[in-house]
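To: structure desk
From: M.T.
Subject: fold request, one chain
Message: Could you run this one when you get a chance? Sequence is below, nothing fancy, just the single chain.
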Amino acid sequence: MADEANTEVTGPIRRVLLISAGASYSVALLCNWKCCLFLGKSRGEDGQLGHGDAEDRLIPTHVCALDGLEIVSVTCGADHTTAYSGTQMEVYSWGWGDFGRLGHGNSSDLLTPQPIKALQGLRIKQIACGDSHCLAVTMESEVQNWGRNQNGQLGLGSNEDSLVPQKIQAFQGVSIKMVAAGAEHTAAITEEGSLYGWGWGRYGNLGLGGRNHCLAPQKVSTVDAYNICFLVWFYGWKKYGQLGHGDFEDHLVPRKLEALSGSFVSETNPSTLVHVESSKIHQPSKSMGSSSSSIGDTNSF
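Reply: Done. Structure tokens follow.
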């Protein structure tokens, strides 16, 4: 039945708006005039492809469960997926549910997309997913997050998992522009350009100058004196050279990437890919990261 409802996509691929990748699967958001659809491929044993079963898909397959919802963003965690519908004002999630990463109040897996009740009616501008936790930034610049919290990556002041979305109270009165979720740590920047980090900090990945875990957001003071908008700063684990500083040392505080000095940087992502004004793509070295999607910022390929 699942194969009948979710058909393989054949013929010319429609215009691609967004892509996201999990641990061993990928999703693409396509646009055919007003019709949006999802493609999932590769491993699907936890239902993260949303096809109603746990079968792998070796080629992109249309997820009919999201038809007519006008999905505007898609974000992958390690083995779970989220999507947002602007017209419905609903966040949908599916896949591996351990630690409450799906936000439905339990740890059950879901084979098809289901709306997260606690986020119903919220206007979302960005969603980010780590290995097993998620964050959503609202249009009011508040941050909701849920899932695993063993190292404080939810920023709630404790290390208890959250099976449903909770607002980060530490940001009361602070307008958050965007967030990024690592495997077990989180970062955020404010509308004023301040940088915060929290969660697992063993390799300096919080940028706070030490290796301690943080249960609540802490301001990264190193970059306060700089306009960070068009400069690239890297910090944290350096085993594979993923920070791009020319060494293999951990960096406990943010350090400007000198190799890109003079370049107008418009975008980076957790895989350390950097988009500069010349439209060339720079990749300092091997890295692991997470996924995020900004609503309404859909650059076509």
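Reply (cont.): The two ends are 33 Å apart (CA to CA). Let me know if you need anything else for the meeting.
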